[in-house]
Design goal:
The structure holds two protein chains of two kinds. Chain A has three domains: 66 residues, no CATH class; 102 residues, Sandwich (Immunoglobulin-like); 112 residues, Immunoglobulin-like, CATH 2.60.40. Chain A is built from six helices and 19 strands. In chain A, strands 1, 14, 15, 17, 18 and 19 form a six-stranded antiparallel sheet that branches. Chain A has a five-stranded antiparallel sheet with strand order 2-3-5-9-8, with no helix packed on it. Chain A has a five-stranded mixed sheet with strand order 4-11-10-6-7, with no helix packed on it. Chain A is globular. Chain B is α/β, with parallel strands linked by helices. In chain B, β8 and β9 form a beta hairpin. In chain B, α4 packs across α5. Chain B is globular and about 60 Å long. Helix content of chain B is 26%, strand content 16%. Chain B has a seven-stranded mixed sheet. A two-stranded antiparallel sheet of chain B has the order 4-5. Chain B has a two-stranded antiparallel ribbon with strand order 8-9. The chains are: A alpha+beta, B alpha/beta.
């Protein structure tokens, strides 16, 4: 009997030691594969070839369909196996680093290393486009002052032509506003603004609602002198949601800073909010997001910033909700113009946020 | 007592052997499964024993120089498996990347492949259907990379189109992107139209030469599929995703023009390109997908086409237009050879944050070498 106990004890110690050493969990983590979920009632039927997978008579490469060897590994287990292998490739090193960074915060949170890389600002960054002619002797550069316009806004579009010495040229443009289906709406005239940079404007309020629905519009711009054509697109947006200017804040039991923004929804839809948090000294901390189905009316949308992300930034409160993007989730996405509410939280010490 | 010690020693040896087996099996049972997501111009909804367009995508060629080339022959090692994803990316169908017939279909097939029941295609290589406990990677080309950006960027709760695609009526359709991306270690993009292509701009703006677009994967008219592959910001997948991708994305770009007369297409594209897609889009650089990127992934001031001074933009890992996106390689390969491995040992350019595993090999072999077990 004692030898059985000793044997079992040694076995237990060795087995435990093995799994601990290799960072292998005996229970799959929450990131493991879950069973295939049925599509909800509003889902369309799978395409025909998916049905074919079940019914086709194509001979499989192996004699019989393969039975799964075991349950799927979780990403964490696989990364642990990569870590245990000292002879790993550069890609595996990169994966390990990425995994550690990604898992550091809740998956909807991301730290912002530099204000220029604030993903919200990137979404609103003006798209300055340069197109070269075929022999690369000249290039057309065009841009608009914004990406998203409301129905009473004015769209300002700029352009210039440069030669291959980088010198701007006196020139002319042919331009046309095209509708959401590519139909011509209006010819546009560019006039010189400054230093051979040319401008045209579109006052959206001049059009009736039936002429301009929300959607993606294109301004086709041609420079015949150098045989160059390119286009600017902009979104005439109808987000059906706005910030009311009311906010609430608290630190929840998980140590997250929760800022709730009150919104007024004008229609029932899925809405998306993304917000970036900065210190009061304008040091960027991080970004978070949420997506919610709302009915018309007033609602509170939570923005959850991980305590660890705030701690990692090393910045004590108060904090500023600096950039916000709200959008009605349709195709195309109906974003509001960039919102900068400037809401400032109470003062918080870093140790009020949990790790 | 001596007998007890002997028995105890035997027990310990047995357990040690058992544990050794367990440890051995942990390292040897792992196999790679590459889930292949093709690009534009293939009706992957067709699948029969003698007609497998989605599989053939990776071993067919538009240019005769690459006849007989096979991406999978360069990709697969002795213990590697693969699963083919097929969706209808033809001009005739005209499905944009956010449709149920594209994103939804891809997601459902990724999920099915991960279950280890085979992809339903006849593999030339015996025993290469994926198992449910494999290490899963996605390999994408061209439009396939745009598709994966949308899927991966909406597989995290709180994302704008979380688990959502759209049907022909414009209605939202529930698709489990989260489940599809669960367990995916990484997404490789080869010649990815991540931020569209200037070729699509030119097709839609009416200034692309017809003679240059007879390759199916180029897009022949401005149908909705091509329309949503333009480089204008309003169409980009990166603007329809949330704060994070569900899996890291490793980008490889090509900068060789097409062989023969179709090499002229490169003259229509800004910066380096693979004959159809601007390098800045392939590498998911921040800012304009048409920026004049050189093969070292930098943008310079130029005088009569000659670069001078320090870079005014560097498309390193910190300057990506999509989250969790990493440079892998810049390879002297065109858009056709990217998907069929037609150039086995292409030249390459050292890039900031690039990965050296597989240096000197084509994109397929680089993936195989970098992921080897």
């Amino acid at each position: 009997m004692p030898k059985i106990i000793i044997t079992l004890a040694i076995s237990a110690v060795l087995i435990t030691a093995y799994f601990v050493k290799n960072d292998i969990s005996l229970i799959e983590s929450h990131t493991q594969l879950t069973p295939v979920k049925s599509l909800t009632a509003d889902a369309v039927a799978p395409a025909n070839h998916l049905k074919n997978i079940a019914t086709q008579t194509v001979a499989p490469a192996k004699p019989t369909p393969q039975a799964p060897k075991s349950e799927a590994r979780s990403i964490a287990d696989t990364i642990a196996r990569f870590k245990a292998n000292q002879d790993r490739t550069q890609l595996k090193d990169s994966l390990i680093n990425d995994h550690e960074n990604f898992k550091r915060y809740p998956e909807g949170n991301a730290a912002i290393a530099d204000a220029k890389r604030d993903p919200i600002l990137q979404r609103y960054e003006v798209d300055e486009r340069t197109t070269m002619n075929e022999d690369k002797s000249a290039g057309l550069t065009i841009w608009s002052d914004k990406k998203f316009y409301l129905k009473d806004d004015t769209v300002n579009i700029y352009g210039f032509v440069q030669n291959n010495e980088g010198i701007k040229l006196s020139t002319q443009f042919d331009a046309q506003l095209l509708g959401t289906q590519g139909q011509p709406i209006k010819k546009l005239t560019f006039t010189e603004n400054t230093n051979y940079t040319y401008q045209t404007s579109i006052a959206l309020s001049e059009f009736s609602p039936s002429q301009l629905n929300s959607g993606i519009y294109k301004v086709l711009i041609n420079n015949a002198a150098h045989n160059i054509t390119d286009a600017i697109t902009f979104t005439l947006t109808q987000p059906d949601i706005e910030l009311t200017g009311e906010y609430k804040e608290h630190i929840d039991s998980n140590g997250e800073l929760i800022i709730e923004a009150q919104v007024l929804a004008a229609s029932a839809s899925q809405f998306y909010i993304q917000g970036s948090l900065y210190s009061s000294t304008q040091v960027p901390i991080g970004v978070t997001q949420s997506s919610t189905q709302l009915d018309p009316g007033l609602h509170w949308l939570p923005l959850k910033f991980a305590g660890l992300m705030i701690k990692d930034a090393g910045e004590s409160g108060p904090y500023v909700l600096k950039n916000v993007s709200l959008a009605k989730v349709t195709i195309p996405m109906m974003r509001t113009p960039l919102l900068q509410p400037g809401f400032t939280t109470d003062s918080y010490a870093l140790d009020e946020f949990k790790l | 007592m001596k007998k007890h010690i002997k028995q105890l020693t035997r027990s310990v040896l047995t357990i040690t052997t058992l544990l050794g087996s367990v440890a051995f099996s942990q390292s040897t049972l792992a196999e790679n499964c590459y889930i292949m997501v093709h690009g534009h111009g293939t009706d992957g909804s067709v699948k029969s024993s003698n007609n497998q367009p989605a599989l053939d995508y990776w071993r067919s060629s538009h240019f005769s120089q690459y006849n007989g080339a096979d991406f999978l022959a360069h990709l697969l090692g002795p213990n590697d498996n693969y699963g083919i994803v097929g969706y209808n990316s033809t001009d005739e169908a005209g499905y944009p990347y956010w449709r149920d017939e594209t994103a939804g279909e891809i997601a459902r097939q990724i999920t099915a492949i991960k279950q280890g029941n085979g992809d339903g295609y006849v593999h030339d290589q015996a025993g290469t259907q994926c198992n449910s406990n494999d290490d899963f990677w996605v390999v994408s080309h061209s439009q396939g990379s745009q598709q994966m950006t949308f899927i991966s960027g909406n597989a995290i709760s709180g994302s704008p189109y979380y688990n959502t695609a759209f049907n022909a009526n414009g209605s939202a359709v529930s698709v489990d992107y989260k489940n599809a991306m669960s367990g995916i270690l990484g997404v490789f993009t080869t010649g990815g139209a991540i931020s569209g292509t200037e070729g699509a701009d030119r097709v839609c703006n009416g200034n692309w030469l017809d003679s240059l677009i007879n390759a199916a994967f180029l897009g022949k008219d401005c149908n909705d599929s091509v329309k949503w592959m333009q480089t204008n910001d309003a169409y980009l997948a990166r603007n329809l995703i949330g704060t994070n991708l569900a899996a890291p994305m490793y980008v490889m770009g090509g900068y060789k023009s097409f062989p023969g007369i179709e090499g002229a297409s490169a003259g229509f594209l800004n910066g380096e390109d693979d004959g159809y897609i601007n390098l800045a889009s392939q590498m998911s650089c921040a800012g304009s997908p048409k920026r004049s990127l050189w093969d070292d992934l930098n943008e310079y001031k130029t005088f009569f086409g000659i670069a001078y001074g320090s870079p005014k933009f560097r498309c390193n890992n910190a300057n990506k237009g999509t989250p969790r996106t990493y440079n892998m390689a810049s390879v002297y390969t065109d858009h056709d050879a990217e998907r069929n491995g037609g150039i086995s040992y292409p030249d390459y350019t050292n890039i900031e944050n690039g990965l050296s595993c597989g240096n000197g090999r084509n994109m397929a072999a680089r993936i195989g070498i970098c992921t080897e077990l």
